[in-house]
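Hi R.,

Here's the chain you asked about this morning:
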Amino acid sequence: MKKANKKLHSAIIIIGNEILSGRTQDINVVSISNWLNGLGVKLQEVRVIPDIEKVIVKTVNEVRKKFKYVFTTGGIGPTHDDITSKSISKAFNVEYCYHAEAYKILENYYEEGKFNIGRRKMAKTPKNAGLIYNPSSAAPGFFIKNVFCLPGVPSILKSMLGGLNNKIVGGNKILSKTLSLRTVESEISVSLEKVQKKYKNLEIGSYPFFQQEKIGVSLVMRSNKPKLIEACTKDILKFIIKKKIKIITRK
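And the predicted structure, written out as tokens:
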């Protein structure tokens, strides 16, 4: 990866056997990706790994050197298989210990006598980690250098993202425009490739769909430069009109 682009790129590491087994469907990638788009940070890679310490350590150390920002989801709860915090400590070769502020937050949150061993575990982080505050259920996430560790529960994760806005330095907001067409990819592939070659600093995605027993294709243009999106859209519309292809929606 080019060093100049590293500041705007990120990765997500999804940690959890429940995702790999198919028992749980991940939707956190959508939340994080949409949030990053608004900050002008491009999500470049997503990995799904099991709750195995050596795998977590190896993956985190590999990915954090490659990307400016790394986000992990899952494995920071109170049970025996929640080993993300301990594994991240090993990845950075720092002590895994109680975070004084996290401990106080949780101690105050639970009723007297209910702050048990499992709940105390959620106050343990790598030494000197910063906290990611949790407005939904108190138990904080944490970050160390460029690695940000979030819970796996989608509603809780989503509520915590806003608290990271001032910790992420991005670029211009990544925008998108979609044209949904009544056609097939093979009918537009050659023309679309010519447009993509013309606009090398813009992404064009082609996504077939089947709706109301009819086939269609959605073309999505993504860039942090609105004028570039508009120019690209105009060139695409030229060959669409020439081929007499029906436009279903524009958004």
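The CA atoms of residues 10 and 159 lie 20 Å apart.

Let me know if you need anything else.
M.
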